[in-house]
Write a structure and sequence with these properties.
- By secondary structure, the protein is mainly beta.
- It has one domain.
- The protein has 3 helices and 12 strands; from the N terminus they run E-E-E-E-E-E-E-E-E-E-E-E-H-H-H.
- The chain has helices at residues 200-204, 209-221, 229-241; strands at residues 3-4, 56-57, 67-73, 76-86, 91-95, 105-106, 113-117, 122-129, 135-145, 149-160, 175-187, 192-196.
- It has a 5-stranded mixed barrel with strand order 8-9-10-11-12.
- A hairpin with a 5-residue loop joins strand 8 (122-129) and strand 9.
- The longest helix has 13 residues, at 209-221.
Amino acid sequence: MMRTILLPLALLFIYTGSYAQGAVNNKLDNFTGNGYAGAAFSEMRKKTNMPTTLETVGTVYIDESFSPCNVYYNDELVGKYYYRHNAFNDEVEIKDTKYTEEPETSLATIKELTLVADNGKELSLKAYKNKKDVVRNGYMYKLNEGNKYNLYFKNSVKFTEGTNPVNSMVRATPNKFSHFTEYYFMKDGDNLAYYIGNRKSEFLREFEKAKRDSLASYIKEEKINIKKEEDLMKVFNYLNSI
């Protein structure tokens, strides 16, 4: 059960004297790792400068409005805040209130922090191996939790630069932010999440040989499409039951 602790806001988030839209550069003092008074997070992640004059289609945010959430350090409640996820920078912006005049800060990028939204979504920083087999850190939402495997999804945003027409016969295209979702799973006791591709054969190879045959049979019998989120959840419910 998660326990509430008294932890001043200044230990988690600190505001600088001035803010530019989409650009915050904050640092905090020494972090001891215990989450109690007298300790503070060592460094806040810098936001990428997004030109305010850039005209684009789409948004860098999963939801542009700030939503209520609880922030936990390990299993201890730090407090209630408002957040929004900048999926282009892969950054979580935090505020004390929903007031538009209050400047936002960046949630410290350490793995001990977990954010639980009022709608039940759980967001935390994970190490993951992407589809190019490159290990990175990024924010992931928990979809399914089990005694053997956890299933996550990761929201990302890609920027595509627009084009100007070279003549009247060519149509201009705008700058565009495109959203996409990737799925990952993590084995119990592991600290690395693995990318789930769209091919069944690649997916099966991620598991030990003893489980592959039964998993392949389950996928065939249940007509599972691993490209679909609801079917992936069925697969991991099955894996956690055997």
